Amino acid sequence: MNVFHIRYRNTQGTLMRILNAASRRGLDIPYVQAEPVEHTHQITLLLEVSSKQVGQLCRDWNAIVDVIQVRAGAPLKEATQVPLWTGTPYPPAMAHISDDTRASAASA
Amino acid sequence: MLKGAEIVLRCLRAEGVDLAFGYPGGAIMPLYDALEGSGVRHILTRHEQGAVFAAEGYARVTGKVGVAIATSGPGATNLVTGIADAKMDSVPLVCITGQVRSALIGTDAFQETDVFGLTLSLTKWSRLVRSIEEIPEVIAQGFHWARSGRPGPVVLDFPVDLLKASMEFDRAAAFIPQSKPAERYTDSSFCETLIALLEQAQKPVALVGAGGKLSGAVESLRDLLDRLNIPTFATVHGLGAVRPDAPYYLGMVGMHGTRAANMALDETDLLLVLGARLDDRVTGEPTRFAPHARIVHFEIDPAQLDRVRRCELPVIGDLAETIPAVAEEIANFELPDWSSWRAVACGPGRAELDPRGLSQPTVRFLDELFSRLPENNVVITDVGQHQMWAAQRYRSASPRGFITSGGLGAMGFALPAAVGVQLAKPETTVLCISGDGGIQMNIQELATVKRLGLPIKIVVIDNKYLGMVRQWQQLFYQRNYAETDLSDNPDFVEIAGAYKIHAARMGEAEVAEYPMRETTGDAIDRFLRSPEAELLVFDCHPEANVFPMVPAGAALSEMVFEEE
Known about the structure:
Chain A is α+β, with helices and mostly antiparallel strands.
């Protein structure tokens, strides 16, 4: 896992462009945090990437108009300690309607 | 007080826009209502994809920003292929889309699409405008990003209520970008490293891409190449940047490049990449690309570096600055003697195997066509076999003389792009070469050609197949011609007639001899010199192939020259 800190101006779509650089490569994003920092914003990403992809990602991010600074490094301690989301991986199931209810609704 | 639509048009004029291509619809109607008297000439195409390709053609041949206009929903989604094309080929483009009114955004209203979201990964910059007050600043910023650095596409999405609203308007805004610390990390000291690499090199070569053209550095690039006098070749977008008669010039490189260029690239120990992305069509199998070479990569977009191979010396910056800096440094430097390497790489032993194209009548036809073109010409191709044949045979010193959809490879590009080129260059002979597959993807633009009275010369190379796909099926899929048969094509001569465009047909027999029959030559001359639009169908053998060819996954040295 590599950690990336990207400082950016929070203009329309900039955050999405940053995330898209990862998603277009089919990368999972197990950890992401975006927050205001001084007069700009910063996003911290944790990604499983090859060393070649580190370079490609950093250059792609730097090419985004409102990205100010990109830093890459080893995983941050606090980032790795944040538990991954453990909720159900699917949306809530549709409410069950019994066949009897469905039939009576249809005949009403 | 001015309406938002009028402000948009005034801001476009302030950016130098006098021509825009588009197609009206509900959400963009206020802009069309304000067009008359605005100073912006609007070209109505017959499909939004035609509009965006025409805007691209205009931008590619002039270097100015092309403008395409469409309505919300399907109008906007029809622009997407052109936007992707502009991104890949670094074309300055601003797309203006109407959007449903602000209160309805996000409600899945009629003809609502999230054009901002769906083009995020294709655009260099984009905005969904949220207030009329933003309009001047958004347009100034959009044009700045479209034309600055590595040019690219921008989308500006205007909710219809903002176009109808009014406000006081004084003048268009100016945009001054905030600098980024990462933008410049190359200084002139790179020249010392470059000279050291040149001193050590035994077999240096230069690979020229579109960067020199885009930055207006063609003359200084040519001067540098003359000074270096090393084997040089070009990508498909670099064609025209190098003088074709230069003794060191080896033609196009890559999947369908010349034998000499690909061999030199395979053997070189120092590769100077001058404004090229190095995509897979140029490199062949990346792990076997230029296997012995150190790479010096001149590039304006840092994102393009080290994509396929790590370069020893990245030179980040505009070629208009970096090339003269190199030229100045080496002006008084005694370059090593590379004459023996040059004699091998550029010598007759590596000449094309079939220099007259006698084994391939379509190539003979294109040779004849190109040789008879008036000097002031632009050739636009579609995508496929004809594109590669044309790229192999077209030799011009005009930097913007060969226009094609290279990176995206979008069929249907040529005809609408030719509309944009001809409008930008009314005195130029514009030759549009398409295939029977590609022409049918935007054939409706014949109506635009006729309506505007554009004297575009359209050639349809008709092999009744999706030829390039069929070629791959033949060579790599055991001749399983799955869904590439177009033998039920319509009669393109009759179709042109329906649009009231004169058309004729020519066959392989008419070009098979060398030299060519006088009657055939006369027919080509008449076609090229007609004051009106003309369409010429060339009936090509269904199984004609483009060679040389580097199979997918092979190294450039593993070119094939015929079906094995």
